[in-house]
Inverse folding.
């Protein structure tokens, strides 16, 4: 059994990181505007206290004692390894560098906001250059196998290697670009009616009921509204989601809620015995999270949003309630017209508004840029032009402003270089997981078509969710699917779905 | 200047206690129900960390160095004194005793809830006995001048002495009991219309606007709804209030909001330079609060709720908006009928529903009981009968059940023996402060009658609010009014107000 000092420290770290999550949740959901300065200091203090505990003498002694001890259980040995990795990371990255990054990013975000508002990339450019240089410095300090981008992206997806990533996107490009082209040449289904008037209170009630139906437990959660939807957990017993409702567009609130509820199902279904262990904590990111990586997390949100929530079977079961909720608004719209509308695809400029088919093309562009910046083959100055060229190549359209182009995402200004691949990894893994689930439990298809979501959730819990961060994403994928990352299931799913939808 | 180690520790303690307040706010405003166990542990950890800092070697060294140093400013010397007092307190009260109290109270609260629900005082009786014994033990350890009750009550009101308290209630009894009798024999004004239908959203908007009008700053605050209204602050830049709205009774939400906004004005108007000093912290209660005591805090809530909010002048200015807000509901009610209705007094069983005139009689009964329990002149077993007798003596009515009698308040089950006096102290001090304000700034009367609340708020800020916990309640009262606690202003105010209202 792992020793007392180790457990004691981890338990305190766990509380501290969970409290930080609550402070962040509050800051996003209605904190008084003038409270932000103090809030920053509060979070800073708790982060410092958590890090002090990771790097404490007691912890280092405990880790040295426990490391490679053959009597440890898997959970114990993986907990020790997680702490050991964090200690090694912080030994290489001095606190001053972390502080420097935080200060740089807070200025960068201001410059980015100003640049985006006024369509001036030049305002953000010098900050992005400094951020890239800092990321390169961190990569050099941490060290990498193939490519400096691996250090950046491994903050979000442990073990992800650049050759794997390159091969993944090559395969996606080869089939997605032509598929999208074909679909966009076909006649578009009508979706006017999605922009009718949908009172927010009714949207909220309907979204609430859908989240419940797929298994989100409101006794251990709550649904609020924010400009940017998110999910955040303070242990498995307190997993909160937010969404945004547009009174004149149904999709945003509806699929946004399913997406965040999918994330929440991961956190709510981690095994209770992992509570207050290192296996529900990201000790390097100093972030309480039970999911093993951003990519696997995204696989769960995409699975419930798209595979389940945008399927014909789903709406066969719930379209009646939707019509009834918005009485008089969708009476003239058939189930199949509704299904086609919510799956309509078209080339678009903005990633967060992109549909299921084009989403990964937006990601591909960003990942190529991030790699190029990190290995020096692309300079920050070149980005606006590069962006336009790639949008033309992948989607056949081009932004007329940088605001709608290279300046649209907040990520880089926050120092998040390397997180974009996880969106596509999520899509791809969701397809692999579904394939494995249906192979092992063929009855799932029928259960889904009968709105029995608990059997899919049980399968996911047993195979993925319950393990928290016990396994790396690679191990988990191998355990569950017998393969590494492989986009063939995903591509086949998209090809079949859109062929049927568009009569290709 | 106070030394670096001292400031560093205080700053961390300040953040920790402010975060605890947020954790408590969240727990009361919509935390998922199953999150409560972890929430308790989170608060427990932060309390422990705060206490460790108060009792740390660095802190003790700093205090020893700074104590009685003639070069300190008033703020510095008072900060040092606050820490010194806390160290002395915790030296006398071992951690085990605090833990024992917390455990006992969590069981006691369950027993109290059960007892209240089923009208069985016997269920709560053994727990209350143990709580009283524990409070006596604490009193003996801490030591007192006149009476063990002083230790209990000084948790809420530093320096309050029993002889002062006894004399205060004797003076109140001598004039309040006959006044109440006379008022209750007179014909009652009609108040039926206060129980008409008042949609909650409109109540919320109206209460929001009243809180704004008296100076509550929503950029540094927010208004939520909870079963039990409260105010809580996380620094002066984040001061939150809650209220409850009853769709069929106007007073609860309206005056509840004014009351909590009054508390909030205290916290929002402490001098910015006291932020993150010991003078915005209760270091013994481990609670972030800028107000110097519960009594002075209550003086501010009562002042805005009753002196301002239940005055004729207030409604002369705002009754039009109220009528307009609830169009069609109060059209037949004149301003003077409305004014009489919101000030109607009658004997009632429940403290939290009591009116301005009878409120202190409810308190008097509780304070006598608390004193008797602490000095052993009254036993827990005797309480139900004692309660009935005193209700008959002071208010001329008697509860038919203990649920409506001795079991009505949660305080004792939570170990809060000694907090009740502060409600009456608040009423009395509010009158003394108003008297001092009007003497020094006679224009305030006219400003209030013209709905210019900022001049009263400025006066209060300068004389009371800005100082935070720099002065003890006694010092503050003496500085501002030139007297100690003295109920004559308060009694005169009540006698005049009700004589006029009831044509006595």
């Amino acid at each position: 059994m792992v020793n007392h000092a180790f457990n004691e420290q981890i338990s305190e770290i766990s509380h501290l990181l969970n409290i930080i999550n609550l402070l962040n949740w509050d800051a996003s959901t209605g904190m008084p505007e003038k409270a932000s300065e103090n809030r920053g200091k509060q979070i800073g203090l708790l982060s410092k206290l958590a890090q002090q505990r990771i790097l404490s003498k007691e912890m280092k002694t405990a880790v040295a004692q426990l490391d490679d001890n053959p009597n440890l259980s898997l959970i114990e040995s993986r907990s020790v390894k997680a702490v050991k990795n964090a200690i090694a990371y912080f030994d290489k990255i001095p606190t001053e560098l972390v502080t420097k990054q935080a200060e740089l990013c807070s200025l960068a975000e201001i410059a980015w906001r100003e640049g985006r508002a006024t369509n001036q990339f030049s305002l953000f450019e010098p900050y992005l250059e400094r951020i890239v240089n800092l990321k390169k410095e961190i990569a050099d300090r941490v060290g990498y196998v193939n490519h400096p981008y691996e250090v950046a992206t491994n903050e979000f997806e442990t073990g992800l290697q650049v050759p794997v990533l390159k091969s993944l996107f090559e395969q996606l490009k080869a089939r997605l670009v032509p598929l999208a082209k074909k679909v966009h040449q076909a006649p578009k289904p009508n979706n006017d009616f999605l922009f009718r008037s949908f009172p927010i209170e009714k949207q909220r009630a309907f979204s609430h009921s859908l989240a419940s139906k797929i298994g989100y437990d409101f006794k251990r959660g709550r649904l609020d509204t924010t400009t940017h939807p998110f999910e955040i957990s303070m242990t498995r017993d307190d997993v909160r989601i937010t969404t945004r409702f547009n009174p004149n567009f149904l999709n945003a609130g509806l699929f946004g809620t399913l997406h965040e509820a999918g994330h929440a199902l991961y956190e709510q279904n981690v095994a209770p015995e992992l509570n207050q262990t290192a296996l529900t904590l990201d000790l390097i990111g100093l972030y309480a999270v039970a999911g093993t990586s951003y990519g696997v997390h995204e696989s769960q949100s995409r699975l419930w949003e798209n595979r389940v929530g945008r399927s014909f079977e789903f709406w066969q079961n719930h379209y009646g309630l939707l019509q009834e909720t918005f009485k008089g608004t969708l009476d003239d719209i058939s189930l199949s017209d509704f299904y086609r509308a919510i799956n309509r695809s078209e080339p678009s400029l903005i990633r967060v508004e992109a549909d299921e088919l084009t989403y990964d093309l937006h990601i591909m562009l960003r990942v190529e840029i991030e790699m190029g910046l990190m290995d020096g083959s692309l300079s920050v100055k070149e980005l606006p032009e590069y962006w336009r060229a790639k949008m033309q190549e992948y989607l056949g359209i081009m932004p007329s402003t940088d605001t709608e182009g290279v300046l649209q995402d907040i990520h880089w200004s926050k120092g998040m270089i390397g997180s974009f691949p996880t969106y596509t990894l999520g899509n791809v893994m969701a397809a692999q997981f579904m394939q494995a689930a249906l192979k092992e439990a063929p009855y799932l298809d029928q259960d889904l078509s009968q709105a029995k979501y608990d059997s899919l959730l049980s399968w996911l819990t047993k195979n993925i969710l319950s393990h928290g961060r016990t396994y790396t994403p690679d191990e988990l994928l191998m355990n569950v699917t017998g393969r590494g990352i492989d986009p063939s299931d995903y591509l086949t799913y998209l090809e079949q779905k859109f062929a049927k939808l568009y009569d290709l």
Q: What stands out?
A: The two ends of chain B are 60 Å apart (CA to CA). Chain B touches chain A through 34 residues (CB under 8 Å).
